[in-house]
Amino acid sequence: MRLMLVVGARPQIIKSAPIIREAKNHDEIELQLVHTGQHYDFEMSKIFFDEMTLPEPLVNLSVGSGTHAWQTGNMMIKLEKTMTEHRPDLVMVPGDTNSTLAGALVAAKLHVPVAHVEAGARSYDMRMPEEVNRRLTDHSSSLLFAPTKNCARNLASEGFASKAVKVPGDPMYDSLLQHIAAASRIDILKKLGLKSEKYAALTLHRPENVDDSRTLGRIMKAIISLKLTTVFPAHPRTRQHLEATGLLARIRENAHIKLADPLGYHEMLQLTKHSNMVFTDSGGLQKEAFWLHTPCVTLRERTEWIETTGSHANILVGSNPGKISRAAARIMETPEIKTKLKKIKNPFGDGHASQRIISEILKSR
Ligand code: UD1
Predict the structure, then answer these.
(1) Is 205 a catalytic residue?
(2) Residue 282's CATH number
(3) Under a CB-based contact definition with an 8 Å cutoff, are residues 265 and 14 in contact?
(4) Could you read off the pLDDT of 231-246 as tens digits, one per residue?
(5) CB 3.0 to 4.6 Å from 141: which of 114, 189, 234, 245, for a disulfide?
(6) Residue numbers of the domain that contains 165
(7) Which pLDDT band, with edges at 50, 70 and 90, does 113 fall under?
């Protein structure tokens, strides 16, 4: 079976790593790894291939950055050529990025079956590009791998046939389990001068938070005013906006905000595990914080990962400064919070999602 796996952005590489590893255990699978080039900086892409010892992609389409239509369109043109040349039997697309949608649309139109990994996640907010991408990808797919039962229910409510939907668990959780030991050997705390459970971590990259200078300013001022030591590995998009709005200078005046370049996977896991709390608008980091029993304050109005919101493990605050400071205060005032979070059941599977995914695609031949 020629299995083409299309990746392009940072979180897709993390989700794909355990699937690639599992595919290698099956001689009957010829893996065709295609990188769209959506992410191209070393610390947004190559570092993950190195850390997770992934094979070089068969092709890198080097599409790069642009508007949504430009980026997705260019990916589609190049993917059509790649798929026509390499004739995959099945195209697998993980996640919800423009690379995911481009891969799914091109394959569906070439009548190649599509398997979507992370199917059925819904934020019910169509202003998020990822929500558009995941809905259209699901509806172009013939095999839908839902990470949780809730995601499978979302698909059922949209009329998907139950035999097309599988619930193998979340390969992102597989990935975390496979890398947590290596992550524990990374000395990111020492490198950044931090003490375990005496700091917070912050990541921000969603267009609705960072592209609008008022929203970005509101969030940054709220975080700065908490007076917590906060590590802030800034996404390239965020850094550009911080620079353009003068907020970078403001951050630098506040020594308790430790601005850093984007971190590798191992460093980020270690940073999250030992932090008091995480502030983020990322989908993946909400789940990683949940798995590592670190309380999460999500800088969004809605989340597709409602599984993480029980017992205040993940508090949704949008960009509202009052809600940000109340959530932080509640976390700081809850004794033994990490011990409490450890007791919450994990609905994202048992760490063997990738084996089930590969076994299902082999059965689908
Ligand atoms: C993309 C995904 C998002 C995912 C995120 C993870 C879509 C619609 N969004 O958002 O779901 O959570 O990746 O990071 O697919 N840039 C660089 N270097 C890079 C990549 C990007 O400098 O290696 C800059 C470019 O200026 C670019 C901007 O970041 O314009 C945004 O990059 P893009 O890949 O288009 O979207 P993300 O915000 O990363």
Answers:
(1) yes
(2) 3.40.50.2000
(3) yes
(4) 999 999 999 999 999 9
(5) 114
(6) 2-170+349-363
(7) very high
